[in-house]
Each structure stands twice: as C-alpha cells, then as structure tokens.
Amino acid sequence: MEIRLEKAFLIFRKDWKEISRNWQVILPIIAVPLVLTIVLPVIMIYLPGAVYNQGVYTGDVTEFIKNIPSEVRMQISMMDSRQAMIYIVLVYLFAPFFLIIPLMASSVIASDSFAGEKERKTIEALLATPISDDELLLGKILVSFIPSMTVTILSFTVYTIVVDLLTYDIFNGKYILPNTTWLLLIFGAAPAVAFATIGLIVGISARVKGFREAQEISGVLIIPIVMLIAGQATGAFFLGTNTLLIMVVVLVILDIMIFYIGKMLFEREKILVRLD
Amino acid sequence: MSMIVAHGLTKRFGDLTAVDNLSFEIDEGEVFGLLGPNGAGKTTTIRLLACLLIPTKGEAEIAGYSIWRDQLKIREITGILTENPCLYERLTAYENMEFFAEAYNITDPREKSIRIRELLEFFGLWDRRHDKVGKFSKGMKQKLAIARALVHRPPILYLDEPTSDLDPESSKAIRDLIRKLSEREQCTILLSTHRLEDAEKLCSKVMIIKEGRRIALGSPSQLSMMVNEYNVLEIRLRHPHKKIRSILEDISGVDRVEIGETVIRIEMKKDVEEVTPIIVRHIVEAGGEVLSVTPIRPSLEDVYLKLVKGDGDKA
Ligand SMILES: Nc1ncnc2c1ncn2[C@@H]1O[C@H](COP(=O)(O)OP(=O)(O)O)[C@@H](O)[C@H]1O
Ligand SMILES: [Mg+2]
C-alpha cells in the first residue's frame, strides 16, 4: 500500500505539539547546543592557558602534527604555534562534539515519540485509527529527524559565526569556518547519526517500558562518539576529509542495517502486548 | 443483517488463553453486551475485533470485512472507546479531537469544526476545550474519549466499559446516547461492561464470558429463563387466608404456592402473563382483596452470578 504523506504529517504535527510542550525533551535540546556553540569556544579562546600555554601544549601540537593529514598540515604550515593550536582545537578537535547534538536531540525526541507514547498509554487509540504502520512510522521518524537536524544545523551556524568572530583578529581577518570537513560532518555524518539513533529506538520501542528506558539504551550510542573525540585528542587518528568520508559511508551502511532490523522489530501488536 | 460475525475467535498470550473459541453474531443497530468478571477477556475480544491484536485462531467479519485482510477498512468504519482513555494530556481537548478527526479522514475544516463543536457541547466540554487534557478529571476524560470515538460517525462502535468512571448522572446520559445511536442511527454497538445495570437496560443480546470462554448467549430474558426453572408471581392480599392455597393449586399451570403474612408467592413453569389473569380472577371470586400483583423476574445480576460461579456452556 502506498504511504499517504498527509497522514504522516498529521502524526508529525501532533507529536511536535506534544514534544514542544515537554521540558524533559526541550531542555537538553537547547542546553547542549548552547554549551557547545558558545560556552566552549569562548573558554578556549579567552581563558588564559586553556589552549595556548607554550610550556604544556607545544608538545601536543607536535604530537598531533605526526598524524595530521597533509591537507591540514598545509593549512597550518603558515601559522604561528598559537594560531595552529586554536585552529586545530576549534576546527578539528571540537568537530566530533557536534555529533552529540543530532544524537542527543533525536534520542530524546524519538524516545518520547515512540516509547513515551506507549508509556502514556495513548498508543492504542492511535493504532485503532485508519493510519497504516508505515505512515505512523514515517511521521514519527520525521518528527525525530527534522527538529534534530534543524538544531544541528542551527548550532553549526552559530558556532561558525562565534568562532569566526572571536578569531577574526587572531587570524588577521581570515575566517577559519566553514570548511569541507565541517560540511561533511554536519550534512553527512550528523544525519547518519540521527538516523542510526532513531532506528535503534524504533527497534527497541516495542520492548522498553517507556521514555527513560529508551533513553538509557540509546545512550550507548554516545560511546563511539566519545571514542572518536578521545581518539582524536590522543592523536590516535585525525578526522580529516578522507577519514570523515569513510565514516559517513560506514554510517550509512549501518543506518540501512539498523532500519531494516528496527522495522522488523516494530510490530504494532508487540507494542500493545507490552502495554499492561 | 449481521454486522459482526465472529467464528472460533481465539487469542493466546503464551500459555494463557485470553479468548477461547468465541463465536457470535451482532445485528445491525443492535446493542450487544459483553459481560464477564475482570480478566474474562472482554478487552482482548474488543481489541481483536478492532484489529489491534491478531487472533491466534479464528475469523471475524466486520460489515463483511475480514479482520485478517481488511484492517485499515475496518478501522475506518469503527469507533472505539478503549479501556484507558488514550488521550494526549499535553494537548487541549480541542487539539485531541482535531487530531483524531483528521486521522479518521475528516479533512474538510468546516465539517471538522462543526462536528467537534457538536460533540464537545453534547458532552459539556465545550467551555473547557482549550484546557490541556492533563487537567481533566477522570469522568471528563472518559467523556472526551467517547466523543473521540464518535467523531467520524462510525456505523460500528466498540465501547469498553463506557460508564466505569462516571457518576450516575453521566452514566445515564451515556446510556441514553447509546440507545439513541442504536435506535436512530442504526449504529451497531458492542458494549463491554461489568455493570449489569447497563447491560440490562441497554442490550438486546448479552454474551457472558469467563476465562475467555462463552458461558451464555442470549437476550437478557432468555438468560433469566436459563437459570430459573420457575417463573415467580407475588400477590399481596389484604387478608390472605388458608383456603386460597387450594384454590390456587387447582389452577392449571401453577406449580407451587407459598402463603406468607401478606404475600402469596406462586411459582409456575408457564409464562407469567398467561396465568396471571386467571389467578387474579380466582382470588377475586373467592373474595380476596388484591393489593398488588408483581411478576418477579430474576435480575440479570442473579443470572450472571449464578452462571459465573458455575461453569460450562449452557447456551
Ligand atoms: N497483552 C497481554 N499480554 C498478556 N496477557 C494479557 C494481555 N492482555 C490481556 N492479557 C490477559 O488476558 C486475560 C484477559 O484480559 P482482558 O481481555 O483484559 O480481560 P477483561 O477486559 O475482561 O478484564 C487476562 O488474564 C489478562 O491478564
Ligand atoms: Mg477490560
């Protein structure tokens, strides 16, 4: 049967109304991006010694330099060591942090939309309406995906502006963002991360009790991102354009698998059976 | 015409058989009562007929549509009051109604707003339409949930314990509504309840189930016949005297007579209405002063308790 888009959007509008009135969901979606886009760069640039402290950090820069791809090496070759440090931190070290935004946002929204609806025992009347499973699923995926990506792109925009403004003088009137890495990150990796999160929650929604449990389980997805952050911070690898491209491809394949499994596990009957 | 035909409907949850081989038919415009103690399988039966659960075995047709194949179509033509009110507490009453109206394909804005207003006014919720449902009382939620079930004027209605959270006045309003829907709009209504009062007042046919199995099926009066061998007539006399007994015992159709202080109790296998005029005439001719004549029909409650305590399919 074909999917009637107006039914999916009906679900979308209903869920969005509910979600936007839930502070449990809205608060983290506002707070986390604020910290990442404004608080962190300000600390980096203005707090004395946070980034640039000759005695401690020069070593790290050179440690990085070993693993830095040639394209980036080129970019920093003309900079002094303060510029290079700020550049590496704000443009590369911070980048994987931004994957937390689509992960966190889609995780809280999808948990509320799928598991929350079940927990509040409203799903039965919804399942009794002449809306097909596919339409319902699509509506709920969209309501998890679109706001998450909106927040992600908005955060990226704010971060770009903040960083460019704050570093304008340091880099003698050159804007350091956006670049290819970031575009790939925000428009390639971020949606892939959001989809993986949503797919996971779709799959577990029939089996969890409610919002909290869905949140806790989807929390495991933070582990690969933390590994990414840590891996880069310790110089184990570097998120250059090539590495990111490979990552996006892997994520997309993973997404397809997660969705395939998620959809198999999403049985309307199971959701109802676990109701009582 | 049968609107709902169930045949051998069975639902198992693991080892537990919640609905066990149920067969029944419900005519168009009929109010059909599903009675049984808690855990009997009433809600599960309704969920099967609403295509919310897939049966383990058996078949049911709703207006000719199979619950195995035509689920979307069946959901379109049925309205359901679920056991939980299933309302969005962060949305207002109006927003809830709007969502379900559109879900049930009422997309024309004018038609939608007229219908919603009509229903909310009927249930006395119009003034509270912009309040979040989370602030509503249980009874108000129940009313809103019934309003939602009716939003698309479904020809078939499933009501799972519709009066359970309502005060007597609201219960009566709901009963009147159910009667009106069945009589005027030919709406076919399946009503699950453990309130025998509702079933007795509303249902033309009643099915009693226990542990998923049918233990009785028939009209309320047929059911009372099933459990009571004798029909009972009580007659109050001003001065009952002993010789009345022999007069009464001679009347053909009268099986037993008991004479109390003021009341004579007569048991008969025959239809009460057939024998009553003869009995009264004999008493009057014998000089008795009749104060009242009351046929004692066992209430559905007596029937129910007797059937639910015993077991086996007697119908
Ligand atoms: N989703 C379910 N999973 C497992 N057992 C269930 C489920 N729903 C109902 N049951 C069991 O099936 C039986 C019938 O339940 P139900 O249909 O809700 O009864 P009623 O509505 O008559 O009170 C009960 O024993 C109940 O515990
Ligand atoms: Mg029930």
What keywords describe this structure?
heterodimer, A: about 280 residues, mainly alpha, about 75% helix, elongated, B: about 325 residues, alpha/beta, Rossmann fold, Alpha-Beta Plaits, 2 domains, 4-stranded antiparallel β-sheet, binds adenosine-5'-diphosphate, binds magnesium ion
How does this model look, in words?
Chain A is built from 13 helices and no strands. Chain A has 276 residues and is mostly helical. Chain B has helices at 42-49, 71-77, 93-103, 109-122, 138-150, 168-184, 196-202, 220-227, 243-250, 272-285, 300-309; strands at residues 2-13, 16-27, 31-35, 57-62, 65-66, 78-81, 156-160, 188-193, 205-210, 213-218, 231-237, 254-259, 263-268, 290-296. In chain B, strands 6-7-8-3-9-10 form a 6-stranded mixed beta sheet, sandwiched between helices. Chain B is elongated, with a radius of gyration of 24 Å. The interface between A and B is medium-sized, with 26 and 32 residues. The structure holds adenosine-5'-diphosphate and magnesium ion.
Assembly type of the chains comes to heterodimer
Indicate the radius of gyration of chain B in whole angstroms: 24 Å
Helix content bin of chain B = 25-40%
Query: What is the H-and-E element order of chain A?
Result: HHHHHHHHHHHHH
SSE class of chain A: mainly alpha
Give the low-confidence spans of chain A.
53-59
- Span between termini of chain A: 31 Å
For this structure, what is the CATH homologous superfamily of the largest domain in chain B? P-loop containing nucleotide triphosphate hydrolases
Distinct small-molecule ligands in the complex: adenosine-5'-diphosphate, magnesium ion
Distance between the termini of chain B: 22 Å
Average pLDDT metric of chain B: 90
Largest beta-sheet characterization of chain B = 6 strands, mixed
Biggest sheet of chain A, open or closed, and with what strands and sense?
none
Poorly predicted residue ranges of chain B: none
Count of distinct strands of chain A: 0
What is the CATH topology assignment of the largest domain in chain B? Rossmann fold
